[in-house]
Amino acid sequence: MTNATRCLIAGNWKMNGILQESLDFVKELQANPAPEHVEVALMPPFTLLHSLADSFSEKDVRLGAQSMYCEVSGAFTGSISPMMLRDAGCHYVILGHSERRDIMHEGNTLIRKKLDVAWSHGLEPILCIGEHLEERESGRTNEVLKEQLSVLADVNTGVSLTVAYEPVWAIGTGKTASPEQVKETHAFVHEELSRLGHDCRVLYGGSVNPNNAAELLACDGVDGALVGGASLKADSFMKIIEAAAETA
Length: 248
Prior knowledge:
Blueprint: E1 7-12, H1 19-31, E2 38-43, H2 49-55, E3 62-65, H3 82-87, E4 90-95, H4 98-103, H5 108-120, E5 124-129, H6 133-137, H7 141-149, E6 162-165, H8 179-195, E7 201-205, H9 213-217, E8 224-227, H10 234-247
């Protein structure tokens, strides 16, 4: 951990989960609460937010959304506004995830608009950054991350913010960055954030699972994890929380 804030273990369910599955998940998680020094958050599909908010208090688990639009309301069919997310009980919202960047073609201009509207409505963004395999292999990792973090230029210091470093080549592939790569890259991200005037948590994401969580979370500069597939089952997610409790 690089600051006094609690370690954060956040589960991004992506396009997975139906009501009964989520209620069963809640029961298991509530039976095994996280220790005080570990914060837990879940980012389920929009359809489950209200149900999970009714099941959890913010003391137990904080809820977040996987994305949102940059307007409060209006004729934007299929979009979800920050006001709706707050109404559904959200504290966090993931912005800039590589799947949104690559599949939905969301760029820095839109991400910055989303950041601003998230802050204006009391949401804490989890800003995702990460390089593709060819960018790492060509030695351009820091260049790519610096460009992605440039959305924070001229943002007031002290805003509620979490950053998640997720190498794109390690998301859903079973590949994981080595501890050396994680330490080196997290050091750069913290340095760049400091240059921009921000001191916040930097999570690691990319095929985090119960087998590698302890090693990854023990790396200098890692303040938690953004977990994908391993967050879909309560038993594997709880093992990652246990690893955080032992290393935080």
